[in-house]
Amino acid sequence: MRVPLAKPDIRDEDIQEVVNALRSGRLSLGPYLERFERAAARYIGVKAAAAVSSGTAGLHLSLIALGLKPGWHVITTSYSFIASSNAILYMGAVPVFADVEPDTGNLDPERVEELIERDYTRSDEGYLVHKGSGARLWGILLVHVFGHPAQLDRFGSIAEKYGLTLVEDACEAMGSLYRGEHVGRFGSAGVFAFYPNKQMTTGEGGLVVSEDERLVELVKSLRNQGRTSMSSPWLEHVRLGYNYRMDEMSAALGFSQVRRFDQMRRRRREVFSLYNKLLSEVDEVETPVEKPYAEVNPFVYVIKLRGVDRDALMDYLRSKGVETRPYFTPIHLQPFYRERFRVSLPITEDLGRRSLALPFYNSLTEDEIRYVVEVLKEGIVRHGGKGSIKADAT
Ligand SMILES: *Cc1c(COP(=O)(O)O)cnc(C)c1O
């Protein structure tokens, strides 16, 4: 049996909408863009949304629109996909990495507050500056890693207490709820991503959401070369903009996916639960948590291994047709960052060594899940563990 890591959930009705976009003759800045934005904003429960060409583009434009300036500091996580931190670097600003919670893998509010108290002090102007360099601490870029919401109440209080801007990288969290409300609407801006391995896809694509409609208008101008409005007939560019537009084929696909997203989300959570159930009895495997404040629509299914050689296990799984991936190699250990950011993050580094993403997508069948779990147990026995059920351990 061959089981890939990820697969998009594409139905005939999705294909039909994309064909409609192609047949319409309007391939960019057409009606699907607004239909998608309206539908997505309604689903998330937020006032306004701007669709863009990728999640990375959405993060970049959010930071521009919210006024981050070169040299300023932004606290963020290293246990993430590299885009969250890269967006800070695009701005000439400085990502400051804090450590994460060992169970969720999300930025730990305790560590963040410790870091602020240790390294920053209030300036005469009233904002926080670094005790050494004097650089201003501007904000916190949260990531809801693997779809599990970060502790938004805690981070909201920290942002308020210290006068910081809170931005949510919700690129892995479409459909995830924090205390019953959709993530992405707690910060000054929230960003979603629709690459084919995410909970829903537009091919390439992203979305910036905010309760602040003017902020979203600004993002819409920035994505479109700084034009005043989408419909302005003249090529009038009032600010430095980018081409970060989402085309109509992508927007049509997104529109169709949002329309049936509840059903997609239900299936994703079923696959998640079945894995949890089958793996709960394996001693060497920690299954992903779902905290009481969270209802997770998982992006990937990531386990943490105990007492097993992960890389050898991955080779074994590959030999049996099961594709897996280490999620994540921490950002501060990536070659580009390693030379520039010397920081020690024990929990992040430990998670980076022990975590493994298993095949995870909506059309995964129960037989395939059982096969993955069986092969995983075999591999564990071969590479350091017992793979036995917990009751046997005595
Ligand atoms: C996927 C993702 C992004 C954005 O990715 P794109 O490929 O640019 O759409 C940003 N941050 C995180 C944490 C992600 O997982």
Task: Give a description of the structure.
A hairpin with a 2-residue loop joins strand 8 (177-178) and strand 9 (181-182). The chain has 394 residues and is α/β, with parallel strands linked by helices. The mean pLDDT is 96. It contains 13 helices and 15 strands. A 7-stranded mixed beta sheet has the order 1-11-10-7-6-2-3, sandwiched between helices. Strands 9-8-13 form a 3-stranded antiparallel beta sheet, with no helix packed on it. It is globular. Pyridoxal-5'-phosphate (PLP) is lined by residues 54-56, 80-81, 83-84, 143, 169, 171-172, 193, 195, 206.
In short:
This protein is an alpha/beta fold. The protein is built from 13 helices and 15 strands.
List the helices and strands and how they pair.
Blueprint: H1 12-24, H2 31-44, E1 48-52, H3 55-65, E2 73-77, H4 83-90, E3 94-98, H5 109-119, E4 120-122, E5 128-130, E6 137-143, H6 152-162, E7 165-169, E8 177-178, E9 181-182, E10 189-193, E11 206-210, H7 213-223, H8 248-259, H9 261-279, E12 285-286, E13 294-295, E14 301-305, H10 310-319, H11 335-338, H12 346-354, E15 355-358, H13 366-382
Helix pairs in contact: 1-8, 2-8, 3-4, 3-7, 9-13, 10-13
Pyridoxal-5'-phosphate binds next to α3 and α4.
